[in-house]
Amino acid sequence: MRILHLDSGREMRGGQWQALRLHRGLLAAGHQSLLLARADSPLLAAAAREKLPCDTLRPLRLGVLTRGFDLVHAHDARSHTLGALFARVPLVVSRRVAFPVRDSPVSRWKYRRPALFIAISCHVAERLRAAGIDEARIAVVYDGVPVPPEPARGDAVLVPRTLDPAKGMDLALQAAELAGVKVQVSTDLAADLPRARALIYLTRSEGLGSGILLAMAYGVTVIASNVGGIPELIRDGENGILVPNEPQAVARALASAGPALGRAARATVIERFSEQRMVDATLAAYARVHPNA
Predict the structure, then answer these.
(1) Residue 271, exposed/middle/buried by CB under 10 A (0-12, 13-18, 19+)?
(2) What are the tens digits of pLDDT across the range 230-241?
(3) What's the CATH number where 17 sits?
């Protein structure tokens, strides 16, 4: 099968990591896969370092270029627009965000174009259904993350650094102060998780939470907001802790964040959220729109 991936992100966030992992996995499975990304993007640089087939995303070339592929997979909102405008083969769109689909003539046109939406959680799929998108055009494929050979070994309690007001960094710091727990504000979870024992991940809205999955893969206990798609990853008191966005509740959770929850979290990722499972599920979704998947 021949798949053309589009991503216009300027940063290396969860969606870009998933696009890279999927691209790599499809190639390993024997499919032809080409990734197009911004010339200055960390995603394109990462693919080039791994010597994976990649090129600069040039919108005006897409109409001709897409004819050489079986389908186009758009991984972000702008790529969705480009695919809707220029793709000459079936368009698949990844939907990662939990906020409602806009209701406008342009949005309705844009959301009619894809043959299939890949939602990263049941919560995101429900948002698509609420926008009037037929169930037959929605597939749920959870993110997949690499499972490190060894679990984390350390005492750090991490809080992801963010300037997004919808995220709860300030609330997490307030809760840690109430609990008398020293925390580390992390700008690079992948680098800091091997030395961590807990991650506080608070947000008002979340499609799934790829940072949560990465922490779980390391066997790090996650304390996370009980919102959006997060409860599809964490079973409260079994493989992590779900909390309301309230400082006293988060402070209490810090006192009960034991290693058994982290071990269960790592087992959950191995069982349900590995990279290979994500690749296999994506191929099953592709098969709904193309017989060669």
Answers:
(1) exposed
(2) 999 999 999 999
(3) 3.40.50.2000
CA distance linking residue 235 with residue 215, whole number of Å: 15
**Does the residue 226 lie in any domain?**
yes
Domain count for the chain? 2
pLDDT, position 281: 98
Total-model pTM? 0.93
Query: Under DSSP, is residue 196 helix (H, G, I), strand (E, B) or coil?
Result: strand
- Torsions phi, psi of 188, nearest 5? -150, 90
The answer, yes or no, to whether residue 168 has pLDDT greater than 70, is yes
**Which residue segment(s) compose the domain that 242 sits in?**
156-272
Q: Are residues 202 and 71 in the same domain?
A: no
Give me 286's structure tokens: 């592709």
Of the candidates 200, 207, 248, the residue with the CA atom closest to the CA atom of residue 225: 200
Work out the angle between the directed axes of helices 210-217 and 259-272 (0-180°, nearest 10). Answer: 110
Q: What is the dihedral of CA 165, 169, 173, 179, to 10 degrees?
A: 110
